[in-house]
Amino acid sequence: MTGKLAIVVGCDDDDESTTVFATSPAGWADLPPTRWPTVACLVTDDSLVNVGVNGQLQRVPWAGGEIVVTELPGTPALPLRVQGARRVGGRFYVCGLFRQVFASPDAVVWTAMNDGLAAGPDEELTGLSNVAGHGATLVAVGVHGTVFRTDGGPWRRVPAGVRAWLKDVARHVGAYWICGKGGVLLVGDAADDAGSAGFSRVATGTMADLRSLRTFREDLYVLGDRVLLRVEGTSVVPVPTPGPPVAIDVCDEAMWMVADASTDSGPEQRRLFVSADGRTFTRHE
User: Fold this and answer.
1) pLDDT confidence tier of residue 267, bands split at 50, 70 and 90
2) pTM over 0.85, yes/no
3) CATH number of 74-283: 3.90.45.10, 2.120.10.80, 2.60.410.10, 3.90.930.60?
């Protein structure tokens, strides 16, 4: 295995427990526990950065050595509650409630990039769940159908056509895909100019909350509550899994999934599964 990845399991608004599965070329690692729930992980060339719900950053070197804990530069007047984190191109981004976005070239030094995100006097303040991008463009999504776009200047609001809590966004085959609560899946250009095609709703056949998007082997996958879907053109198909899926992540060689799987000795337990093609999964021993 040449890739590095981390899978976060069990952190939600009402769930303070967190498990992080992490692997590198040296194999699977036992990560030290944190005193706060981990929301997401950022994979850099030399370390894994666990991002905490209140902006904590735990930097774990892949090669071993000192583990360093720092925090994002929040302010008492604008507390941070992280919702998502992602690497886009060569930069790292963290976003959260109160429309906050932080950017970093190395996941060490962070700066706020909130120009254009502040709510007007009569506007509902919404939070951001995650970001995606291509080139100089970034798209952020969040609560109440919130979509923002920046091309290097101030963020601009983009109509989404829905009011659902949008949980994730991904760039795939020249378009932006967005998933959210209530089985919402959107595809479009995320443009805010006149004449834009905007977003189209994609039928998913489920009312499950869809919360994560990952690209593997040139296919886009949508993880929801106890369901995994694969995008085929402008439609989706369910992916059979050995148990209800809880979390997924991908590296160059494989898709990894944590699922609830029944055992001979008792009730369901969470197990780690691996797939080389994104269609069939085997248990990782």
Assistant:
1) low
2) yes
3) 2.120.10.80
